[in-house]
What does this fold into?
Amino acid sequence: AQSVTQLGSHVSVSEGALVLLRCNYSSSVPPYLFWYVQYPNQGLQLLLKYTTGATLVKGINGFEAEFKKSETSFHLTKPSAHMSDAAEYFCAVSDGPYNNNDMRFGAGTRLTVKP
Amino acid sequence: EAGVVQSPRYKIIEKKQPVAFWCNPISGHNTLYWYLQNLGQGPELLIRYENEEAVDDSQLPKDRFSAERLKGVDSTLKIQPAELGDSAVYLCASSFNGGAIYNEQFFGPGTRLTVL
It folds into this structure.
């Protein structure tokens, strides 16, 4: 079964600094990969996804992620952090087209942005 | 277009009491999901419906949890009786499964349950 590991439950950066949130996955089939953001007392919002094609995917709010099969990674980056980026971020994986409804989430990384 | 609606947003009950959560998915979405999100954790699937049919309920603790999706639209998740360990956020999500290779799930704001 597929699974996700997010390295670092808390990440703190200064405003304007690079944001890097790490995600490694395990899957027996070509995966679909996702990053979601959750603001306090709200549901999850899709930031970006990888299904097929280009391995560098761009999402909303200036975020992007790169699918690296050889490293089984899907790290999330943003060149310059903004105060509004402070939130909880979840990486998720599904069994691609075989069962994209069965999505498994990581434990999440809380991003803090310091002024 | 309205998103996924959940109610109540917050619920505080004493242990051994029953509790119910309601979800109204996005109009036209035939697939509905209930997730459990414990504090500091990612969501975990409890049950998935395709229209009225529960197609994946393997993670639903059936001794105390039940769910229904009458008429393939709204859904209710019930816990009876509630235990202290049930304190968590219960998320509902919906998607349109029309045979495409990818069906985005849209999440509601969740119901935060506190069991005292």
